[in-house]
Amino acid sequence: MATVGKSEWNFCSDNVAPVAPEILAAMAEANQGNVASYGEDPWTVSLTEALRRLFEKPDLIAFPVATGTAANALAVSTMVPPYGGVICTEDAHINTDECGAPEFFSGGAKLLAVPAPDSRLTPAQITARVEQARDHGVHVVQPHAVSITQSTEWGAVYGLEQLRAIGETAARHKLGLHMDGARFANALVHLGCTPAEMTWKAGITALSFGATKNGAMAAEAVVFFNPTQARGFAERRKRAAHLWSKQRFMSAQILAYLKDDLWLRNARHANAVAQIFARGLSAVPGVRLLQEVQANEVFAVLPEGVVAALEAEGFGFYRWQADTAPGEAAIRLVSSYVSKPEAAEALVSAAARFGNR
Amino acid sequence: MATVGKSEWNFCSDNVAPVAPEILAAMAEANQGNVASYGEDPWTVSLTEALRRLFEKPDLIAFPVATGTAANALAVSTMVPPYGGVICTEDAHINTDECGAPEFFSGGAKLLAVPAPDSRLTPAQITARVEQARDHGVHVVQPHAVSITQSTEWGAVYGLEQLRAIGETAARHKLGLHMDGARFANALVHLGCTPAEMTWKAGITALSFGATKNGAMAAEAVVFFNPTQARGFAERRKRAAHLWSKQRFMSAQILAYLKDDLWLRNARHANAVAQIFARGLSAVPGVRLLQEVQANEVFAVLPEGVVAALEAEGFGFYRWQADTAPGEAAIRLVSSYVSKPEAAEALVSAAARFGNR
Amino acid sequence: MATVGKSEWNFCSDNVAPVAPEILAAMAEANQGNVASYGEDPWTVSLTEALRRLFEKPDLIAFPVATGTAANALAVSTMVPPYGGVICTEDAHINTDECGAPEFFSGGAKLLAVPAPDSRLTPAQITARVEQARDHGVHVVQPHAVSITQSTEWGAVYGLEQLRAIGETAARHKLGLHMDGARFANALVHLGCTPAEMTWKAGITALSFGATKNGAMAAEAVVFFNPTQARGFAERRKRAAHLWSKQRFMSAQILAYLKDDLWLRNARHANAVAQIFARGLSAVPGVRLLQEVQANEVFAVLPEGVVAALEAEGFGFYRWQADTAPGEAAIRLVSSYVSKPEAAEALVSAAARFGNR
Amino acid sequence: MATVGKSEWNFCSDNVAPVAPEILAAMAEANQGNVASYGEDPWTVSLTEALRRLFEKPDLIAFPVATGTAANALAVSTMVPPYGGVICTEDAHINTDECGAPEFFSGGAKLLAVPAPDSRLTPAQITARVEQARDHGVHVVQPHAVSITQSTEWGAVYGLEQLRAIGETAARHKLGLHMDGARFANALVHLGCTPAEMTWKAGITALSFGATKNGAMAAEAVVFFNPTQARGFAERRKRAAHLWSKQRFMSAQILAYLKDDLWLRNARHANAVAQIFARGLSAVPGVRLLQEVQANEVFAVLPEGVVAALEAEGFGFYRWQADTAPGEAAIRLVSSYVSKPEAAEALVSAAARFGNR
Fold this sequence. Notes:
Chain A is of the alpha/beta class. The first copy, chain A, has helices at residues 21-29, 42-54, 68-79, 93-96, 101-106, 123-134, 160-172, 184-191, 195-198, 233-239, 248-258, 262-282, 304-313, 341-356; strands at 2-3, 61-65, 84-89, 110-114, 142-149, 176-181, 206-210, 220-224, 288-289, 297-303, 317-320, 328-334.
């Protein structure tokens, strides 16, 4: 569980961060007079336009919701019948951290989870799962969609080639392809490509476009690149109680998030701080990284004594389940748009110091 | 459908209103540093304490959520098994305006709706429904709970006597008793009683305590007066994606809402504006009120020409389904904490003027 | 509740009857050797062919299931998304007697029930419900299908004109049209038309074709007249556990039911016995029929003393909820393919005798 | 997929078998006159008494249903809230062969599947899964029950020691313990213990007591050893459409199944035929068993050419997914109560003959 010490030393998650000032200001600015409720407001209209420009897709349809779990579960439920399945990795957030939300929203669809060391799925795994099921007709839950996370739950980033290969595989098997983009921006700035390239041009059909972890208060957007595939989403959002009456305050967050590339600046900052951890911890004797650091999450194995000393010192992070030798402990460090480089350096120095005792 | 004109003349609903400045300020104040996510923050802890004091019930349990539909559907799903039923009125918000959310959250429970002119349920109706079902064993959906709305969907307010009689009836039949308090404050200031008197002292077991319609941005609290009856709620909220990672911003809203009686002042204001409509429109020849006005909703029947003229003039309100004579139209006017008395008077004057043409 | 006396005097329901000897013999005949399970057997293949001939529809798709509730709930769940609604009458079996099965199978769809004296729905009621919902967008559950019962729960039979009018109305509003044919045969022999005329030629898109109440052990068939509308049904049946491994014994029942018009003979017999009740009871002073008797159900109002005496004598029937004067009681009598005319006459005579006391 | 040849050579599954003559005769005997429907008949009453004697548990509650999937899914849905999880093995029938029925019936509960070579779960696996989840609160689906299969999907039989250890573990973690006994009799005669020893005395709280695979037509019984844990089952069965109106014909099957130890004789026969396969195939060069044969299922690896030749010869069995070397193929052979020893010997001889070519 989390150890939480000084606020600046809190690396438990990027969602411990406050709201970016630009976004809070935009919400205050939206607080003018009476306006039509339930998404009939001008901010929500502008948001669709902004996302269409951003993704270079003039007919996409987008639905803002307040949480990443809502975005994922609503997207998946629109893509898969209740008797169908979704191929994902065992460590996928939808499989491990949403208390069964995809199963709930979809009316009982099954997550067909496959093991993947850094939570990156491969085309071969998808095909194997499909063929295994196709042989058994109605007895077995048939895959109807694939869900991948970008960047993944282990901080890895799918390259464009990998995404395209998955996209082709999904299309060949007539599967929808969902991207959980809770850390979309962190992956995007790592790849240096366009949002279109990382999504529909690679075959993604539905995207959970995250903003909360990267500076918003409570705002994500579900984006369908093919509007016919959004059928029923509006109804599902309403009956899941995820349509706000004062929806303008959700849309205003995402508009401000996109404005003047705030989202990209925030993500670059978070990724850069993660690199301080990556470089710094690698250099500490007895410490090793579990994964190459590509986005804003760092997974490291340290001597148990060092981890305990860091906790006692007041640094905040989660211990993580991983294969470690006796006397070792794995931890996860997550940097955010407000993480101070000095705080990351302080943790690295402390780890080195404790390791030398 | 709604006609929306000038912002100040918009009486479509109390949810067209902006956020109360005190509440927005509290959200900005909560925007300090990294804090534990998912409700482990100090604001959320304080909120429970505040509600315990407010309701004079030191062991109640409360869960903030963003929307009234979430509050209602989550509460109901905790009170009723999927094979059970909830007695409510035909016009209950849960029955008509939530796109089937209670059915969804509960896994298919049935709303057992009975007709009620002003959407106030009677003990006799509850007993009749229970007895009718008890006779038919497993073939019929058995009632497990009752849900009432205070103030009701037709702007009526249950008196304390009525509430207590319902409470006793529900208890006698071993039914949970839920109150949809989307407009709780408006009812409370009308009755001039304490929150405890209007809820658990009358037999209410679970409450959707609304704040959004009365000044918050997106915040309600589900309150269980008997903590053992909250079993499973936390899990249900999470899997319904209604637990925010940055939950502090939801809790901060309700804390500010309660502080210095902001919520009561707001409700008194809204109710007072509704009385301007009630008194003013009653005096216009050819106009009649459909219901006594007790809270902040006004239902009136006007000559069709007057309604059309008001719409053309730019007043915002909904036409409402009701029994009217040919040449008449029913409308609903809802006042909120920001409604200007002058705007209400302007509408009344316009109605009188148009009626005289 | 039911009073059950001598077996022959049991008119509680047509499902108290045993299995027709011809059907039991066919099951025994199917009990030969090992055959492919889960519906890959020859009987199931033959059944589809038999139904295609019967309904004059060479591309229909049919799925046998064991119970009428399974047939109805699976059909409805295939026709309506979880966020949709089904227009039916308040007294429809799916609304009152299936413990919420349609809601369960559909994942929470809502039954939009309208009052109808003899449980016959009208085109105007359908249109009114649709228009009422269309105005309110995502807030209201939108109708996606209509379900009617033939013969109805009050023993009435829709005429072909009525069916066609409903069919046209449903098609105009793009609604699926389901017929609960638990007593399909009783209606068919009353009308004297073809199965095709009473179904797809009138606009029915899915049929629960009942056999259990008319002589089978546990067998109904869900028939989709347009095979594309059956999408997902096979999977839904399997996951609802309604695909038998030894499916041959279900299919064999329906094959025997259809062979040599057994089903029509059985239904004619049951209807004829109902006419004995109808004619006989009408002639008893102080007794009146609540409905014209068109199929095999009789609803009558008798003096309370007569009802009690009949019960004491050992006749079996249900008391029924209906508007009666003080001192009166309503009852339902159902005849089946094994009901003896002498037994019906005995009940009529007894009623007359008790009435004269 | 299955290759089906001559009826006697069909070893695809034990559910390809016909109905035992004793059972069919009992159904015919039950076909007398009108009797109360929906389980109010004498056969159903007798069945509960018979099961209470059989299991030496005078207060158990039992519910007959038509299919094993219904028994499992209904049992599980009664044991686990929709937001909970069920620990089982990856190859458990509920996880792989029921098209998501447990998820459907439970309203979205999650199967927490762990790998197990012969599909026998261990106490350590249960504890590990529980501890892993307990750490993560509402974010992770919490285990509420364990489900094991006896005999397992790989033909293994849990010993009494193993069962008791699992029972203690489940009780310690406050988990319900379900046994999928689709092949209960085959396991029981292998162990030579009493039904009580193999169930509640070892800690089993709910049992799917199978009969269909061992001679019945369509009949299983869900048994709750602690009646308070059956709460809601009757309602769930009805709304899942698994309560027959002519329920006597389901209960009569199980009564006949138990009478004069028919079920034990049938199971002994099936197990004995499986031993013919086990001994015979082990002796064929190039053939190996994948599992020790303890019940009536045999898993063997043969040269691909031999498998193809057996198929061509007309033997019926499934090819099975297993780790095999190139040129090899795995198959499953299932014997039933009607399997002829000569037919099993014929297959063994043919395999030897083909292997020698």
